[in-house]
Amino acid sequence: MPITVSIVEDDCEARKVLVDWVRAEADFRLGSDHGSAESALPVLPREAPAIVLMDINLPGLNGVECVRQLKVLLPETQFVMLTVYEDAEHIFNALAAGATGYLLKHTPRAELLAALREVRAGGSPMASNIARRVVQSFRTPPPALAPPPATELSGREQEVLELLAGGYLYKEIAEQLNISVATVNTYIRRIYEKLQVRSRGQAVARFNRFSAPPGRLTPAPGTPPGCH
User: Fold this and answer.
1) Of the given ranges (1-5, 53-57, 84-88, 98-102), which has the lowest mean pLDDT?
2) pLDDT single digits (tens) 129-142
3) At what angle do helices 155-165 and 170-177 cross, to 10 degrees?
4) 90 to 55, 63, 85, 182: CA distances (angstroms)
5) How many structural domains compose the chain?
6) pLDDT grade for 37, boundaries at 50, 70 and 90
């Protein structure tokens, strides 16, 4: 069955490109496309798409608040933010609202479509430079946060999470640990359950603030010295 994808993007030219990309793929079906959060909010709950591509900088109600409202009504829908913003505040606001992935607007077509398929398979796509920014923002743990759940991660789950936080793709994690991608997906779902989170960013945030010692994370392939 094709994956239903809906798009919320105020730039009509950018929205048309995304619509064309989705329509050209046999395993995707375009649900609807919208130029604002206000037009999307009454439609998407009835449509219940599998994935929503959401711009952050929308006129009127912004994309983060739109996701926050829709996630309550569409708990099974995965929201992928597509934006020009790379700063930690926008990233964390989006993840906290319920976004599953965070991609930049200059993401190439093949990479974006692969990210949508990864979301459908249970993954949380995030550009490698965005993942590194997330990791870097945890260097100084904030005060007064509740401790993580009592259930501890197994050694292998911890290895998977560290590689995930380092910006590795699921396939790369599988190669590093000599396991299948399906097994990686299983470990990540267990990690989400134990840490009581819903996305890659939330899992990395919750774990690293309390458990990962400085310098422990492994840099992603091709990361220049000093960039991890």
Assistant:
1) 84-88
2) 666 555 555 544 44
3) 140
4) 12, 10, 7, 31
5) 2
6) very high
Residue 104 is given by DSSP the state E
Phi, psi (rounded to 5 degrees) for 188: -65, -40
Q: Give the residue from 60, 92, 125 where a domain finishes.
A: 125
Q: Contact at 8 Å (CB) between 122 and 185? A: yes
Instruction: Give yes or no for a contact between 66 and 83, defined as CB atoms under 8 angstroms apart.
Output: no
Query: Domain for residue 44, yes or no?
Result: yes
Q: Are residues 16 and 111 in the same domain?
A: yes
Q: pTM value?
A: 0.59
What is the radius of gyration, based on Cα positions, of the chain?
17
The band of 222, judged by pLDDT with boundaries at 50, 70 and 90, is very low
How high is the mean pLDDT of the chain?
79
Phi, psi dihedral angles at 102 (to 5 degrees)? -145, 105
Question: Is the domain of 151 the same as that of 119?
Answer: no
132 falls within a domain: no
Residue 138 placed within a domain: no
CATH number for position 14 = 3.40.50.2300
